[in-house]
Amino acid sequence: MESVHPSNYFPAGKPRLMPSEETLPSSTAPSAACDYDVIVVGAGAAGLLAATRAAERGKRTLLLEKNRKPGVKILMSGGTRCNLTHDTDRRRIVDAYGKQGRFLHSALAALGPKELIALVEQEGVPTKIEETGKVFPASNTAVDVLEAFMLRLRRSGAELVLEEPVRELEVLDPAAGPRFRIVTSARTLTTNRLIVTTGGQSYPGSGTTGDAYAWAARLGHTIVTPRAALVPITSPAAWVADLKGVTLTDVELRVTEPAGSQPDAKGRPPKPKLLDRRRGSLLFAHFGLTGPVALDISREVSGHAHPSTLILECDFVPDLSEAACDEHLRSQAAEMGKKQVFSILPEAIPRRLAEVLLARAEVKGEQQASQLSKADRARLVPMLKHLVIPISGTRGFAKAEVTAGGISLDEVDSRTLESKRVPGLFLAGEVLDLDGPIGGYNFQAAFSTGWLAGESV
Fold it and tell me: Which CATH class is domain 6-227+402-456?
């Protein structure tokens, strides 16, 4: 396979055109009518595939990127391994997005998980499926995934320019010529089709600083308030920080909004409102909680006006009911009466966590199991099944993997990704109000919407 390591594309000094103008087919020379048939702004996951597909269809395509590198988030993702999709079918991708999922039908029909994997493997990058269903390059190197997309981009004839940020977007009168004028840091360009794939606000150090929200708003689009998603949760509790490094492979987190003070219409006392529940692995950290289950539930925390008022419960033995948990403790105490109480807790509970749970239940872990009373169990079972973890918020966009919120899906045609407000404007990727769970779903949506936009221009 031809080597196209990303470092080859980023020389110091003036931005480099990719591929060079000398290698482009003559049909790509700008015309008097407009400089390019299609301009794509943002060379991330969505932008790379949008530009590639547009150019493969014979469109004179320019891909603009303000960073020194394309695909920065691809390189960063998955701990630099790049979890590019999930081992599932289109329907389950749609289901994973909940209400937003309906928007993805056409995009996934254009490029589903199997087609995305095939696209990468056709460029000489084999993939693998891990037990969680996450799909990674077999090399565990995100650079290889980006390399695959860059190879296809080069063959397509699209032109990539780096270190050229867009300053202004203007809609022109299409009756008089091109539809859009784009002012960059270096020049003014015109085009009839514009694809915006600048991402959201997560990991702003990668260049995703929400630039397109202001552009879209000026063009009449509604911006659903952006908020951090797939982001670690913070806790003010000292005992949470003391557990840093403790990992649990299978817990359930539930986040609820406290009950109000007013009874309902039938005079019944108010009940807490369940906002979300998720199951997966959890990691305690010095700041609070991270790991897949914490990241998945975090959008409800970051989207709440007063996150410190939310109730976050952790179920450490989700396969056991409260009654079954109590019976486990009772039977183990009877069978292992001479051992310490620590020894009869479920195997999934590490010693450090067990010490915290027993202390909070006011049960002595060093005492013999035979001394564990019914009252002790009545205090301990809720610690195992409903431990309330105080939270203060999240670590924000700086540590968020994706952005929830963005350009309203109601104002974008899901069949083409064209704006319903501005003809000729196409929107794809994380700039849209579209966010899914951890596990490759968000990259799949970005790649699929980018591909469909390139197919539609």
Answer: alpha beta
